[in-house]
Here is the input.
Amino acid sequence: MIDYSSAVKKVLEHVHSMGVEEKPLLQCLGLVLQEDVHAGIGLPQADISGPDGYAVRSADIEGAGKLHPVTLKVVGTLRAGYLPGKKVVSGTALRIMTGSLVPEGADCVVRFEDTDEPGNKNGPNPANPSRVKIHVAVPKGGNIRRAGTNIQNGTLLLQKGTVIGPTQISALSSIGRAKIKVVRRPVIAVIATGDELVSSGRKKLPLAKSYNSNTATVASLIVHYGGIPKILGIARDRESSLVKKIDEAVNGVDAIITSGGASRGDYDLVRLVMERKGEIIFSMIKMGPGKAVAFGTLRRPLMRMAAPVPVFCLSGPPQGCLINFETLVRPALLKMRGLTELAHPAVKAVALDSIPSKMASTFVRFTDLKETEDGYKVTLNPGGTVGVLSSLAIANSLTIIPKGSTVQVGDTVEVLPFDWCF
Here is the structure.
C-alpha cells in the first residue's frame, strides 16, 4: 500500500507528453503550442485612424474651441480597407473611419464628437457635408495608431508551451496563421468491469444489478481534461472477457482506464491480468474512498518499440472512481497533453460544519465550496443524512482530511475545487 503523494509521483514517472501534430487553428483550443510563433508582419502595417472622425493638419486647428471653431473644407470620405485617394492640404479635412489609412498631409484625427457632425446619426451622414467645424485643438499624432504599435515584425508572439485559448487564437489569426504545431490529444480507452453492471437507460434496474455510471463519469472527465475517450464497454468477471477488452485497446490508445475489479475479492481480476500482461507499479493507496486502486503498464504486442501503455485501475464505487480520477488520472492526463502545471487548484476555506471523529486513515470528502465576501466557506457534509450519492450530486469540490485529524466548525481547511464548477 502506498501513500497518495508517492502514488502521484509514480504515475507521473510513467506517463509522457504526446507527439506533435500540425492542426488548423480552430481545432487547437485547449491544446499546448509546440513551437515559438514570431510575427511575420507588423501591425498595423501603416498609420491608421483610431476613431471615426476627420483627418486634418494639426497646424490648421491650433486654438480651436467650442466658442471659436475652425472651419475646414471636406474633400472626401475614406473607409477601412481602401487606399486614400486624396491628400490633405492646408484648410482641408478628410472624413475618415476607424482603421482607415491616414492620408498624406494629415498628422492627426479629430473625433466626430468634437465636430459639428450630427451626434445621433445612424450610418452615413445624410447631409454629405462640404465643410466641417472643428471644436478642439488636437496635437500632432493625436488619435493616430502608429504602424507597428500592435506588434512589430519578427516579435515573439507566443512561446512554446502556451495553452491555446480564445485570446491566443485571436492573436494568431491577426498575423495570418491558419495552422500551428501542438501536442496532440491523448486517446484513452475506458473499460468498466463487473457482472453486476447494466447500461444506463434500462427502464427497470434488476435486483442485485447496478447501473454502469463509471463509464460516463470517466469519459466526461477525459473530455473535460482534454483527452479523447474510447469507450469499450463492460468486461464481465471472467479473465477471458477482460483480456479481450484490453487486447482490443492496448495497441491503439495512449492509456487505459478500468473501473472496478482492483480489490481483493475472488472476482476482482484486473490486477491478475495486469501481472500476466505487464507490470503493476503500485496497488492500493492509503486514502479512501477509492483505496482499491492500482496503476501499472502493459506491453504493446504489435508495437514492440513503443513505450508501454499506462493503465489506471480505478475503484468500482462511483465516489471512489471519481476521487481516483481527480487525484491520480488528472495530473497524468495534463502531463500527456504537454502541460507543466499539474498540481490541483486549492483554496483555504472556513469549515461550516465538523468532522469530530479522528480519521483512521486519510479520507476524502465531497464538499460544497462557496465564495463569500469574507472568503471561501465549505460545507463538509453537504448530503447530510440522505446518503453518499446525494452529496456527490451537489458537490463542487474535494476536501482531504489527513489521518488522525478532526475538523471543527470555524477551522480552516484546504479544499480542491472541481474546475468545471467555478
Q: What stands out?
A: The first strand starts at residue 20 and ends at 24.
